[in-house]
Amino acid sequence: MRLDVVTIFPEYLEPLNVSLVGKARARGVLDVQVHDLRRWTYDRHSTVDDTPYGGGPGMVMKPDPWGACVDEALADGYEAGAHGPVMVVPTPSGRPFTQELAVELSARPWLLFAPARYEGIDRRVMDEYATRMPVYEVSIGDYVLAGGEAAVLVITEAVARLLPGVLGNAESHQDDSFAPGAMADLLEGPVYTKPPEWRGRGIPDVLLSGHHGKIARWRRDEAFRRTTAHRPDLIERSDPAAFDKKDREMLSILGWRPGPDGRFWRDPGAVEQ
Ligand code: ADE
């Protein structure tokens, strides 16, 4: 997969040399090219921003440097044999970044990231490239960062670990929280490793039992517990057909009740029975 990142802070992308993404680069699974947007400015101050038309606070990124830099990054990529680019523009006003979108992006051969600073990039840049390729405006959460670079790191890591040959164990993303299908959209419960006792704290007996059926049941119960505490909306949205008898017993213990449409609901003040 080819990744291009256009930024005014190339050093912000240094983490792409480390850990999983760094190894994927070293192995040739990822070809990452970071471009310093200011190289495509031609005034004494290397200006990349200007005041917004219509007034208002903040500054807007000028279209000229973006257009020149993105054109060159695209030309370079095509020359290197890449094809099928997708432009990814991190912005708090984008569509939510989800595991589903990570899976979709991981199937693309080429992602070109356009992280903005200031109030954003002149709209005409996205409109221009949308005539040539899919342009995804993506938000990594309901908060406002100072710029899109951190979002590029987040999206890249989520996508890179899905590429064939990047994770050591081919199955290790199959039961991630949010992996489509796996735990029917439950959060993963707690995990433990050696030593068996740490600061007076032991391991749940069931995990030492060697009884695979009981361990799977316990993990699922813990997933229900955690999802109830942190993301009750995931259970409210779930298709109740995904829940077996044991699931329903656990849901009942956690205060969930089937509603008239079969979906589960819970009084937020409910306590474990
Ligand atoms: N840039 C600033 N805030 C952001 C967010 N929440 N997601 C993606 N890009 C952003």
From TrEMBL:
Its main location: cytoplasm. It comes from the Bacteria. It is found in: Cytoplasm. Its EC number is 2.1.1.228. One of its GO terms (molecular function) is tRNA (guanine(37)-N1)-methyltransferase activity. Residues 1-236 form the tRNA methyltransferase TRMD/TRM10-type domain. Gene3D superfamilies: 3.40.1280.10, tRNA(m1g37)methyltransferase, domain 2 (1.10.1270.20). InterPro entries: Alpha/beta_knot_MTases (IPR029028), tRNA_m1G_MeTrfase_C_sf (IPR023148), tRNA_m1G_MeTrfase_TrmD (IPR002649), tRNA_m1G_MTases_N (IPR029026), tRNA_MeTrfase_TRMD/TRM10 (IPR016009). Specifically methylates guanosine-37 in various tRNAs. This is tRNA (guanine-N(1)-)-methyltransferase. The lineage of its organism: Bacteria, Bacillati, Actinomycetota, Actinomycetes, Kitasatosporales.
